[in-house]
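Quarterly update from the structural biology core.
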Amino acid sequence: MVKMSLMISAVAAFILLLTMVPLSEAALSANYYDQMCPQAENIIYQTVCNASIYDPKVPARLLRMFFHDCFIRGCDASLLLDSTPENKAEKDGPPNISVRSFYVIDDAKTKLEKACPNTVSCADSQGPWWNVLKGRKDGRVSIANETRNLPSPFSNTTTLIQSFAKRGLSIKDLVALSGGHTLGFSHCSSFSARLHNFSAEHFSDPSINSEFAINLKKKCPIPNKDHNAGEFLDSTSSTFDNDYYKRIVMGKGVFGSDQALFEDYRTRWIVDSFAKDEKLFFREFAASMVKLGNVGVIEDGEIRVKCSIVN
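Predicted structure, tokenized:
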């Protein structure tokens, strides 16, 4: 319960990021709302806590939402915009069809507008476990096709390293942020190719633990009539911990992209370090989240009244 409370606190931080993008580097501050809307962080924290009571999947969903938003155009809340007849938005891009819990953002934004009208945008946040610089504005552009640039569960390590580097994120950031999968769940479609007819030499991906592969095949048979079938990305799915890395070390990474981190010499030692030292993972995850939250500085923007539409 303590670790889940920590994660709710962190996700509450992400919402105040999903509920502003920087005007300039100098304009950002961890204390940006202290005078303009001092109750903002408490409003967001309580919103996330309340939503998580009714749906324990909320923290994981919001963590994924944060990553998917920041990785495309920076943390400008472009993922929250609805499609229009003239434009298919990020929200409706193939990788984002399964993104959930937008209602939590909407609830937080409604409360923020009531407490501090036209002050807190849909893209900004900070939590008690690390400071996220604030002072952002919401973006006006959201394009579904750009979601092709999101990391894929089928990507190899070289592709992932290059993708993160384009956003100013290091190899360490790649491995640390992948740790967000500690709360993740995946449907069979994202990993079943690793289980069946992998190659002429191996029926399954040889990097998968053989016993684990058997269990996954039972959950994801061919043909698979259960479209909700899948697997959690670690064995402690309701706890934010380092179990994700321990499972990768054992060959029990669900995604090919996850297991590849242990197969590549450039990332293997980092996976190993996080698997052995949970406190180290927590520190590096927090540092990498700060870097991710500052990807994509824009010069103009707005403060949306409603997160799903531009003003």
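The mean pLDDT is 82.
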